[in-house]
Amino acid sequence: MTARRTFFCSVAALCLTVGVAAQQPNTSRTDQLRREERQDYFKKWLNEDVVYIITEEEKAVFNKLTTEEEREQFVEQFWLRRDPDPKTFINEAKEEHYRRIAYANDHFGSGKPGWRSDRGRIYIIHGEPVEIQENFGGPYSRPMYEGGGETAVFPYQVWRYRSIDGLGPDIELEFVDTTLTGDYHLASDPFEKDAFTNVPGIGLTMAEERGLATKHDRFIKSGGGEYYPLLAQRYQDKPFVRLERYAGIMRPARIKYPDLKQIVDVDVTYSTLPFRFHQSQFRLNDRQCIVPITLEFANRSLTFQDKDGRRVSRLAIYGTVTGLGKQVVKEFEDEVINSFSADYLRVALQGKSLYQKLLVLEKGRRVKLTLVVKDLNGGKIGTLSRVLVPPNYATRDLELSTLVLSNSIQKLARIPETDEMFVLGDIKIRPSLDRVFPTDRLMGSYLQVYNAGIDQQTLQPSLRVKYKLYQGEKPLMEIVDDKGESIEFYSGERVVLNRMFSPKDLGAGKYRLQVEVFDRVNNQSAMIGDEFEIVSAAPKPGTD
Predict the structure, then answer these.
(1) I want to staple 182 with a disulfide (CB 3.0 to 4.6 A). Which of 64, 110, 204, 311 is the partner?
(2) pLDDT score, position 240
(3) R_g over Cα of the chain
(4) What is the rounded CA–CA span in Å between residue 376 and residue 313?
């Protein structure tokens, strides 16, 4: 009995061992297949999906990644960097890219997938042209910029783009089907579509008809940039211009100031171009805030160069907003140009230049703003990093925006259709970053009030607004607005307060403005303040 039991246990153990041994290779094989599938996915993504739009720098980084997690994060960041509107749930750039691939496969395939063709590549990189001129081949009268004369041509298409970044305006591309299979290739020479190029005696240009040139000269003279007789070339048809366009059209769309982006990527902190920074915060809706960021440059720190008799400075500005884990929330770049007459430059150098960007950010979400500014004429660079935490504005209590002090507040005739610097609604307000006001200029205050009640009899807010001026701890003046004279605009979302003050009534010195708002409807109050300085007005030119 003991022997039988021992044998049974041995057989059972053997079966169990065999079973486990049999399962291990299957499990290992499944994991291997899964890894191979992921490797194939990333290989396809790199070599097919984004092969035309990924930069060489990005490709080099991707090829150094060793884990799936790193590659997945790279792919996510790749599309986030190209998202034109990060505040939406859809990445429009990604959606448009894959739509272009599908369109190219549907319309440009011929023995190979459409995305592999020249037309497919151009369409994927640059999108749909504004005009396509199609010729199905046959007899053809050359225009004079192609040499004139009669010939026959292969089927060809001419694509026109209004403008392509890096190549300029009015871009014209010619695709020729020399194999008559529907496979159009991008032509680098206008004679590529000529079906009689290699046929002696026919399809001659005007110069060839008159014995001034031969067909062989088309490629030696025209292609080499030498003079070809009777050829009235347009600028875009010049050989080196065409070759430059041919090479440039195939490159991925580039960032306007890549050197500034590299500074952000490596987190450089040096700065040789000083500037002031100011941020404000305004509620937009239940989820988002508007955060205007303003930069101020002293004109004397900028480099001015002569251009067409004027003195011109150029600033390139690149910025990123990143969340936790350095996820790019927003990316932007702009150029600021100042132009003054030579006679006025001495006065202009005493002034300042402002730049503003309106950021739309999620309420309560902590993000990091990184800015790089470059003087394009002088090469100086300024950098800045700030943590931004837009307020929640989540309560039903009376709440206030940032108080903005300004030396220029202007009501516009209408609300602009697109975002403009210094414009909030129909008010254009240039914030004073140093909050220094001369006695001969007005000082304005701008403030938004949230959650104010509406009087059911007047259907208007009922606010008492007090403007209090202090010098140190000493109260100097109090202006009480009981009638709503400060109210510039109101709705169910906000009340906009705008008030102008005359500094000439105050002596030179440092002061504090305190604004107190009391809502009579809801019996609530809120208060905010800021410091400023009054200085004597500068003497006018020509006076002692």
Answers:
(1) 110
(2) 60
(3) 34
(4) 8
Low-confidence ranges of the chain (pLDDT < 50): 1-25, 221-225, 266-270, 543-544
Would you state the pLDDT for residue 7?
A: 36
Q: What is the pLDDT of residue 435?
A: 93
pLDDT at residue 60, rounded to an integer: 86
| 8 A C-beta contact, residue 296 and residue 278 | yes
Q: Cβ(463)–Cβ(484) under 8 Å?
A: yes
Domains and CATH numbers, the chain: 32-76 (no CATH), 83-128 (no CATH), 130-243 (no CATH), 255-391 (2.60.40.10), 395-544 (2.60.40.2550)
**Cα separations in angstroms, 540 against 112, 347, 429, 441, 506:** 74, 11, 25, 13, 20
Identify the residue whose tokens are 């990189």. 125
Query: Which of these, 332, 322, 319, 330, lies nearest to 387 by C-alpha position?
Result: 322
Q: Which helix (H) or strand (E) holds 16?
A: helix 2-44
Q: How far apart are CA 303 and CA 297, in angstroms?
A: 12
The Cα-based distances of 108 to 6, 159, 174, 190 in angstroms read: 74, 14, 15, 22
**pLDDT at position 147:** 83
Q: How many CB atoms lie within 10 A of CB 519?
A: 20
How far apart, in whole angstroms, are the C-alpha atoms of residue 394 and residue 275?
34
- What would you measure as the largest C-alpha separation in the chain, in angstroms? 126
Cα 493 to Cα 172: distance, rounded to the nearest angstrom = 50
Residue type, 383: T
Query: What's the pLDDT at 125?
Result: 92
CA separation for the pair 144, 146 (Å, rounded): 5
CA atoms within 13 A on the CB side of 274: 5
| pLDDT for position 1 | 41
The strand pairing partners of 436, in sequence order, are 533
Q: Are 269 and 383 in contact (CB under 8 A)?
A: yes
* Among 182, 208, 25, 216, CA closest to 108: 182
- Those residues whose C-beta lies under 8 Å from the C-beta of residue 221, and which sit 6 or more positions away, are 213, 227, 228
